[in-house]
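Input chain follows. Return structure tokens only.
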Amino acid sequence: MSASSPTAVIAATGLFTPEQSISNAELVEAYNAWAELENARHANEIAAGTRQALTPSSVEFIEKASGIKSRFVLDKTGVLDPERMVPHLPERSNDELSILAEMAVKAAQEAIAAWGKPVSEIGAVLCAASNMQRPYPAMAIEVQQALGIEGFAFDMNVACSSATFGLKTAADFIASGSVKAVLMVNPEICSAHLNFKDRDSHFIFGDVATAVIVEAADQATGGWEILGTRLKTVMSNNIRNNFGFLNGAALPTGESEPVAPTGLTDKMFVQQGRKVFKDVVPMVSDMIVDHATDLGLDPTALKRLWLHQANINMNQFIGRKVLGREPTPEENVIILDDYANTSSAGSIIAFHRHHDGFQPGDVGLICSFGAGYSAGTVFVRKR
């Protein structure tokens, strides 16, 4: 795709936000209660110097490290129980709509309503997310059935970059003539893969779902022209989750939900935060500038950046590098304070909630980055 002949547009977006939320103060209280219990349980080892006492968390530490102030979750009670520290999400029968699909459907319904066209015009459904509820049947097919959409559907996972990879895939399907419209959904139950017993990361994630309808430009009214898409991956172990069907048997007897005792922490989200910052920030900044240049765009003239909502320090650094100055809050959108890191959905939430004030011809950037490493850039122009 080139800037002179866009073939696909973002026609509509949707957002599902869980009813429950957890403030930093609530999360810190739960973590510190658990840490106090653990220190008491191992008082003898700590006194003997064979075990290090756990350090309390704090609201100040969380906000300085991340910019996060609260997060939405599907289950608050389980996360805040010091004896549990895991959301309670009971398994559903095969005849019920799965949790991930239910979230996706709600976000999709909002997007479809905003679009104002029948679902019969949608030819494909993509479920692009970082944590899939099961290997198969695909959640995308479940969403397809729930919404009465024909055609085809499949799941795809590129961690936090899944949405931009999904947007490119959708745009490519349209460019090839395979379909006239694609529904892409990004349901994220990040609380179920987060180790709430890890002080360095217990505050990072929240739950949410987003949806995007990508449509052929020759039949779309309004929307956002996709000027160009670019993807990049570089292998790294600095962000990793080792859970899978080959090691599922490692769960303690009787456990059917994510747990994080000693020896299983790598089956949940783990990262080397400082290394990630050092590696990813320059990689993404250079990728944005290079892609803009190749499209004939001036990166410093972008009206707005809708970046992956991983960490406020990363986003501010990337914003300064791309725009060549200190961005205003309107130019570099931050939704971390309310939603926390929502993996693939973050950049779409930012776009969905803060795309006002654009005139036809104004250009912005949707960008995501994360585990893999992976990164995706999607430049869009208001029609």
